[in-house]
Amino acid sequence: MLVLMKDRGESSTSKPLRAARSAVHDDRFAALARSGYVTSGVLHMILGWLTAIVALGGSADADHTGALQAVAARPFGVAGLVLAGAACALLGLWMLGRALFGREKVTGRLKNAGTTAVYLTIAVTILRYALGARSSSAESTQSLSAELMKNPAGSALLIGVGVAILVVAGYHIYKGLSRRFPKDLHTLPNSPIRLVTTILGTAGYIAKGLVLASLGLLFVVATVQNDPNDSRGLDGALQSVRDQPYGPWWLLALAAGLVLYGAYQVLRARFDTMR
After folding, report:
1. Cα separation of 212 and 169, whole Å?
2. Residue 15: inside a domain, yes or no?
3. In terms of CB atoms within 10 Å, which of 34, 48, 139, 266 comes out highest?
4. In the 8-state DSSP scheme, what is residue 229?
């Protein structure tokens, strides 16, 4: 009897694990998860458009809040945000399954785990906004920074966040310059599609890396100077770039790069090596 109960317990426990393993290699689940790349691409293109507005002296929230607001203002925009959040959640869950049960080596699994965190965070952010959360990311960042700067441990944490963002920025720039991103894709045919994908990926990864580098530097400098007003998130970082000599032109170049990165993400939904 005890043996039978043990076997039943192990069987009931292993069923979810078997289901998770099979989902990782399910083409239908992978096809749905790819829509998360489309969502990411569209949001980056909107962010590029908002960045261009800031570069030209206009008023816009050039961060994820501004991008979500632009979508929500359209007809059926809230419904679109719900679908976008669900798409990112599916991609995050698929990456989680790949991190746990995929065929990659340890480094590949760690990368997938990081991607899981990114897309699940995006999903939560989009869904919270769709359900009514309307807090400004710049104000939230300033408030949190002010609290953390009140003690040395908090300041050290903020500097650590800035350094981590700089590391991620460096990885994006390296991935663009070295053209390592095609490893994420199926072998592309020698056609205009391959050329376009290479151009989009190279310019897009470099541009996103430079945007993240601006954000990371802003965190570090603001913390060293003990000025939480300078920790205004991505929108604050881009406005700081605009205020520099030739800043508007530099910002327009970054805006174009973000649009190209968004287009690359949309193409990635078609050619990513998800299997």
Report:
1. 5
2. no
3. 48
4. G
- The answer to the question of residue 6 being in a domain is no
Residue 70 host element (H or E): helix 64-72
End-to-end CA distance of the chain: 42
What's the domain count of the chain?
1
The answer to whether the pTM exceeds 0.85 is no
| pLDDT tens digits along 160-199 | 888 888 999 999 999 999 988 888 787 676 778 888 888 9
Is residue 254 situated within a structural domain?
Answer: yes
Helix 247-271 and helix 35-55, axial crossing angle in degrees, nearest 10: 170
Distance of alpha carbon 169 from alpha carbon 183, whole angstroms: 19
Radius of gyration of the chain (CA): 21
Residue type, 85: G
Q: What is the pLDDT of residues 214-249, one digit of tens each?
A: 888 887 877 777 665 555 566 677 777 788 888 789
Query: 3-class secondary structure for 137-167?
Result: HHHHHHHHHHHHCCCHHHHHHHHHHHHHHHH
Chain segment 243-270, per-residue pLDDT in tens: 888 878 988 998 999 999 999 999 888 8
